[in-house]
Amino acid sequence: MDLFSRSWTALRSAVAALPDEDFERPSGCAGWLVRDLVCHLVIDAQDVLITLVTPATGEPTVDAAGYWKPVEPPTGEDPLDALIPRLAAAYGEPRLLTSHLDDVGSAAGRAAELADPAARVSTRGEVLTVGDYLSAYVVEWTLHHLDLIAHLPSAPRPPAETLAAARTALEKTVGTVFPASLSDADALLIGTGRREPTDAERDELGELAGNLPFFLG
């Protein structure tokens, strides 16, 4: 619960600090500008709110590590992915987009703090505890924080503890451990295909390099 709040607060704070011109820069999500990514975060926050008020009575079918699953590489043909840039452009001014994220994002953060970690919720056809659901979202927030700052070197980075937690979660999800020589951020970026490993990193990865990247969905 604490890591969810830290990662989400850090990401929202980084967005709030961006000057208007940065919203037109590319993000770490292929084909998306920063404004598109921020629009996606609004939808993510709505998903959190919806899930936290969708109780389930059955036994959990997944835990935090099983929530995200390796998927096929994105093709750019997903209807929602195509919709995001149009939605983002419709806001017009960045302040309208950030205001919406602040409203919905704050509500999602408060809902998470008030939720019972042991309660069970349903989403994506799965049942899991609130605690596991929120833990899974530490990966989402941390990866998208890295996406946000991919071309903004002066922007604040994700907290060290959430980077470490996201790396551990990724390793559990894909069933492999990245070399200790890779920083948490580099393991996440390389592991999820957000950047290619250098020659030296590829040597460190060894046989694992042939299995990369892992796309999560």
Strand order of the largest sheet: 1-4
> What is the arithmetic mean of pLDDT?
94
Count every helix, treating DSSP H or I runs of 4 or more residues as helices.
9
Which bin fits the share of residues in helices? 55-70%
Structural class: mainly alpha
Order of helices and strands: HHHEHHEEHHHHE
* Share of residues in strands: 5-15%
How many DSSP E strands? 4
Q: Give a quick account of the main beta sheet: strands, pairing sense, barrel closure.
A: 2 strands, antiparallel
List segments where confidence is low: pLDDT < 50 over at least 5 consecutive residues. Answer: none
User: How far from one another are the termini?
Assistant: 21 Å
Measured on Cα atoms, how large is the radius of gyration?
Answer: 17 Å
Shape: globular
Question: Could you write a compact summary of the structure shown?
Answer:
This protein is mostly helical. It has helices at 2-16, 34-52, 64-67, 79-90, 94-114, 130-148, 160-174, 184-191, 199-205, and strands at residues 70-71, 120-123, 126-129, 215-216. Helix 1 (2-16) packs antiparallel against helix 5 (94-114), helix 2 (34-52) packs across helix 4 and helix 6 (130-148) packs across helix 7.
